[in-house]
Amino acid sequence: MTERLPLMAGNWKMNLNHLEAIQHTQKLAFALADKDYEAVEVAVMVPFTDLRSVQTLVDGDKLKIKYGSQDVSQHDSGAYTGEISGPMLSKLKCAYAVIGHSERRQYHGENEEIVNAKVKAAYRNGITPILCIGEPLEIRKAGTHVAYTLAQLDGALADVPASDAESIVVAYEPVWAIGTGEVATPEDAQEVCGAIRGRLAELYDAELAEKVRVLYGGSVKSSSAAGLMAKPDVDGALIGGASLDADEFVKIVRYREQAVG
Ligand SMILES: O=C(CO)COP(=O)(O)O
């Protein structure tokens, strides 16, 4: 079995201006030691206006923290007022772009076609997508959450070749768990993360599926991280609210030191 380096990615959402971003990144850099980065990959997904500041810090101080954006345009250039392109993000050395977050699907009308085009735009520009999928509450209640989430995966990966897909990060983020304080149980997370890996094996092959990191996101805190990470198909977390608190985020990065609960 391939060893997958866990990924702990903070999604700051629409929080922290560029001055606050500098302060927050410096706090993380100060708190995290080399040995933390050996055990876990650490990333922050920041507002567009923070990227240049974060890049300058990371480059200047040779920080091991990775960074990325929370979205990317499906187009590479042109008359798309307000959009930010893949070439702009790769020029800022973004490692990752969050794509298809439920808040973008909900508030910005992103459908499967757009998400698929954005995944391709990221790859075209050397950026690794962190693809977000997951069901709303009514689907969970109806018991069709696995099929619903896998259909989102199929749509996002349509016509994406294995040579690209092998590096994708998939984040299972059930909408009912996002920002609600209601974290999925480790068993719930494993059920869907395992199904995602199974579908990747069907869409591509087992070797690719073993390589891909599948994260869980939704109200992750230091008190829940170790339990989630104990599951075989959960390879990290996408962390919203708790990533805005540097001490709490560092505790999540060090989940191995926390009790499984
Ligand atoms: O949406 C999320 C990460 O992308 C999860 O947000 P919370 O951790 O605030 O629930």
UniProtKB/TrEMBL annotation:
<comment type="pathway">
    <text>Carbohydrate degradation; glycolysis; D-glyceraldehyde 3-phosphate from glycerone phosphate: step 1/1.</text>
</comment>
<protein>
    <recommendedName>
        <fullName>Triosephosphate isomerase</fullName>
        <ecNumber>5.3.1.1</ecNumber>
    </recommendedName>
</protein>
<dbReference type="InterPro" id="IPR022896">
    <property type="entry name" value="TrioseP_Isoase_bac/euk"/>
</dbReference>
<dbReference type="InterPro" id="IPR000652">
    <property type="entry name" value="Triosephosphate_isomerase"/>
</dbReference>
<keyword id="KW-0312">Gluconeogenesis</keyword>
<dbReference type="InterPro" id="IPR020861">
    <property type="entry name" value="Triosephosphate_isomerase_AS"/>
</dbReference>
<feature type="binding site">
    <location>
        <position position="219"/>
    </location>
    <ligand>
        <name>substrate</name>
    </ligand>
</feature>
<dbReference type="InterPro" id="IPR035990">
    <property type="entry name" value="TIM_sf"/>
</dbReference>
<feature type="active site" description="Proton acceptor">
    <location>
        <position position="173"/>
    </location>
</feature>
<keyword id="KW-0413">Isomerase</keyword>
<dbReference type="GO" id="GO:0016853">
    <property type="term" value="F:isomerase activity"/>
</dbReference>
<feature type="active site" description="Electrophile">
    <location>
        <position position="101"/>
    </location>
</feature>
<keyword id="KW-0963">Cytoplasm</keyword>
<dbReference type="Pfam" id="PF00121">
    <property type="entry name" value="TIM"/>
</dbReference>
<keyword id="KW-0324">Glycolysis</keyword>
<comment type="subunit">
    <text>Homodimer.</text>
</comment>
<comment type="similarity">
    <text>Belongs to the triosephosphate isomerase family.</text>
</comment>
<comment type="pathway">
    <text>Carbohydrate biosynthesis; gluconeogenesis.</text>
</comment>
<dbReference type="InterPro" id="IPR013785">
    <property type="entry name" value="Aldolase_TIM"/>
</dbReference>
<feature type="binding site">
    <location>
        <begin position="240"/>
        <end position="241"/>
    </location>
    <ligand>
        <name>substrate</name>
    </ligand>
</feature>
<feature type="binding site">
    <location>
        <begin position="11"/>
        <end position="13"/>
    </location>
    <ligand>
        <name>substrate</name>
    </ligand>
</feature>
<feature type="binding site">
    <location>
        <position position="179"/>
    </location>
    <ligand>
        <name>substrate</name>
    </ligand>
</feature>
<comment type="function">
    <text>Involved in the gluconeogenesis. Catalyzes stereospecifically the conversion of dihydroxyacetone phosphate (DHAP) to D-glyceraldehyde-3-phosphate (G3P).</text>
</comment>
